[in-house]
């Protein structure tokens, strides 16, 4: 769970609908299944960026998550992107902030993934 997560997702309800449920937070978990992209690691200085793309529809809940080159990527260079966590944004079920060290090795590494 991410602390204070408020998604800026377009509402599927009327603008003034006070009974509209809050937008859900989505998480992509490639722990047990996924494409080769599940092996792309985090970096604080990434060479890829993430973009959600709509194809043949306008339903934001069905957007495809795609990775694009942020710069020229040389052969055999590791592919990586910024996972986008905000520091102190992950909390355990008991409400304590979870901290995970970052080991990306970038010169400007933030030293923590979250």
From TrEMBL:
Keywords in alphabetical order, please.
Methyltransferase, Nucleus, S-adenosyl-L-methionine, Transferase
Query: Which Gene Ontology cellular-component terms appear in the entry?
Result: nucleus
The answer to keyword Cell inner membrane applying to this record is no
List, alphabetically, the Pfam families matched: SET
Coiled-coil intervals, chain numbering = none
What is the predominant subcellular site recorded for this chain?
nucleus
| Keyword set includes Methyltransferase | yes
List, for all copies, the residue spans of the domain called Post-SET: 98-114
The Gene Ontology terms for molecular function here are: methyltransferase activity
Name by which UniProt lists this protein: SET domain-containing protein
InterPro entries assigned:
Post-SET_dom, SET_dom, SET_dom_sf, SETDB_methyltransferase
Annotated compartments: Nucleus
GO-annotated biological processes: methylation
Region of interest (Disordered), ranges? 1-23
Question: SET domain location, by residue?
Answer: 1-84
